[in-house]
Structure formats: structure tokens, C-alpha cells
Write a structure and sequence with these properties.
Blueprint: H1 10-19, E1 29-32, H2 35-46, E2 53-55, E3 60-62, E4 68-71, H3 74-82, E5 86-90, E6 94-95, E7 101-102, E8 105-106, E9 114-115, H4 122-128, E10 131-135, H5 155-160, E11 170-175, E12 178-181, E13 190-194, H6 200-205, H7 225-235, H8 241-244
Parallel strand pairs: 1-2, 1-5, 5-10, 10-11
Antiparallel strand pairs: 2-3, 3-4, 6-7, 8-9, 11-12, 12-13
Length: 247
């Protein structure tokens, strides 16, 4: 795909939305979970966030090409996590207006109708280091009034237990429709930007709770020519990103 031959795709706007989560982060560990967040983290490292640390998911720090840069045993990884030196971008099977996230089960947790991944490290992630979310299919099944089980901690629960949530910070939620944050007085979800071609009404219809919508909703930042070249020719030349995001 030629950079000059076509405009940015919806998937490429999603990559930018994810990459911007690490702008100005400094020397911290980026932990992107999923294809689009991984492309975004690698793009950020190559452009505006050169101090980011990337991992192979096991015990090695790597550069943008996957070449080992250092050793990261599990005990040091936990030190970064609990010390706030990591920004993780996770998925969410459900998320509510305060950012409570569920990846464990659907239905009553004592007798769920569907078992998912389990709580895993979500509580530690959300209580101890910056956390963002990537949701490839924005729908009322995911953006719900109340999650069936709390795995990742939202702002209402963090406020109820301030002594354990001193480092709680939900940076953003990126979906295939737009970018969202919690920059409201009561820390409920608001629209930060919408991807080109997406209307406010479309987002309202796809969300199971009332979003805060500013009077003027900006578009998600477009990738620069150089960013498009890096995405298309260097980071993801096989165009795997378009398999995850419908246009």
C-alpha cells in the first residue's frame, strides 16, 4: 500500500489513538496488549516517545525491531508495575462509565453464563500504574451501565478506597469509533475525539450509558506522512491492522 496512494484507514486512526497514550511518558515500560496497541506503542517509540521501554512479553527488553536491549526478569517487572513505571493498555469485555473493567465472566460471577480470561493482573495494573483500554468493537455489549464483575478498578471504586488507589490513573479508552477519557468533574467517561466518519449519534447508540459529550468534538489526530510510512512499510507491512478494525 503506497503512503501517498490512499488516505488513512480507520485502523490507522486507531493506531494513532493508542500511540498517543504514551506521549510524554518518558522512560517507562509500555505494555500493549493486542495488535493495534502494539503497533501504536512501536510507532510511539519510533517517533515522539523514544525513551519508551518495550518488552517481548517474557523477560527481555527489546527495541522496535525486536532486538534484545536488556534483561527484565519477573521480579523487576513487578517493581515497575507496583512503582508506577509502566503504562499498560488492556482489553475489556465490559467497561462502565467510571472505567470499571471486566475480563472475567459474563453474568453472575457465582454462576456465569460465560467464563472469560479471569481477573488476572487487572487490579494491580489499575491501582499501581497508568492504564488505558483498547476495544476493537464499540457496542452496548462492551460499554455497559454496570459491569458484571470488577476486574480493573474504575474511578468510583478508587475514590471509595483512596488509601489503596494513590496511583490510580485511567488515561484513555480507544475504540474503533473514537478516543475517550475521564476528564470530567465526577470522572465519568467523556468523548475526547471521534474518528473521521463517526458521528456523535453513532457513538451514543453504541454506548450503554450516557457519555459526556463536549459542545465541539474534535476529530482524532490524523497520522503524519512519516507515521503512515512507518505503519505501512516498517511496523505492519502485512496490514494485519485492518483485520482487527472494520471500516
Amino acid at each position: 500500500m503506497s503512503t501517498e496512494a490512499s488516505a488513512p484507514t480507520r485502523a490507522e486512526y486507531c493506531v494513532i489513538g493508542c500511540a498517543e497514550a504514551w506521549r510524554g511518558a518518558g522512560e517507562i515500560l509500555a505494555s500493549p496488549m493486542g495488535l493495534i496497541p502494539s503497533i501504536g506503542a512501536r510507532l510511539a517509540r519510533r517517533t515522539f516517545a523514544p525513551d519508551l521501554l518495550l518488552t517481548d512479553g517474557e523477560a527481555t527488553l527489546v527495541d522496535v525491531d525486536g532486538t534484545p536491549e536488556g534483561w527484565l526478569p519477573y521480579r523487576r517487572h513487578l517493581t515497575l508495575v507496583t512503582g508506577g513505571r509502566r503504562h499498560v493498555m488492556m482489553g475489556a469485555s465490559q467497561i462502565d462509565r467510571y472505567g470499571n473493567q471486566n475480563i472475567s465472566c459474563i453474568g453472575d460471577w457465582t454462576k456465569p453464563v460465560r467464563q472469560l480470561l479471569g481477573v488476572r493482573g487487572a487490579p494491580v495494573n489499575t491501582l499501581n500504574n497508568p492504564t488505558s483500554y483498547w476495544i476493537p468493537r464499540h457496542s452496548r455489549r462492551v460499554f455497559v451501565e454496570r459491569v458484571d464483575m470488577v476486574c480493573g478498578i474504575g474511578y468510583d471504586r478508587a475514590a471509595a478506597h483512596p488509601e489503596t488507589a494513590r496511583f490510580h490513573h485511567l488515561a484513555r479508552v480507544v475504540s474503533d469509533l473514537g478516543v475517550f477519557n475521564f476528564a470530567t468533574q465526577d470522572h465519568t467517561m467523556r468523548v475526547a475525539s471521534l474518528h473521521p466518519g463517526v458521528s456523535v449519534e453513532e457513538v451514543r447508540e453504541a454506548t450503554g450509558f450516557a457519555l459526556t459529550i463536549p459542545p465541539e468534538v474534535p476529530p482524532t489526530r490524523a497520522p503524519t506522512t512519516e507515521e503512515l510510512r512507518l505503519i505501512r512499510e516498517v511496523i505492519d507491512p502485512a496490514n494485519t491492522r485492518d483485520r482487527e478494525v472494520r471500516t
